[in-house]
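To the wet lab folks,

You asked to see what we're planning to order before we commit. Fair enough. Below is the target structure as tokens, and below that is the sequence we designed to fit it. If anything looks off to you, flag it before the synthesis order goes out.
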């Protein structure tokens, strides 16, 4: 989680970053990164969508919390 937080923190202030794991304890291939504001999230998407991280290309989408 810290590596993911560090990556997104290079673009904008990150509140939290959490890699999701499957039932076997292996990374599921998805994560949730929370930003303090919408502008920070949009900047991260613009700069890091398509970026290769851990051998995988990031496909970043924007989701608002309820």
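Sequence we intend to order:
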């Amino acid at each position: 989680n810290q590596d993911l937080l560090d990556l997104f923190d290079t673009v904008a202030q990150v509140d939290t970053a959490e890699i999701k794991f499957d039932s076997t304890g292996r990374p599921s291939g998805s994560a949730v990164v929370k930003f303090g504001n919408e502008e920070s999230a949009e900047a991260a998407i613009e700069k890091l969508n398509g970026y290769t991280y851990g051998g995988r290309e990031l496909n970043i989408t924007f989701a608002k919390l309820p």
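Structural context that might help your review: The first strand starts at residue 14 and ends at 21. The chain has a mean pLDDT of 91.

Thanks,
Computational group
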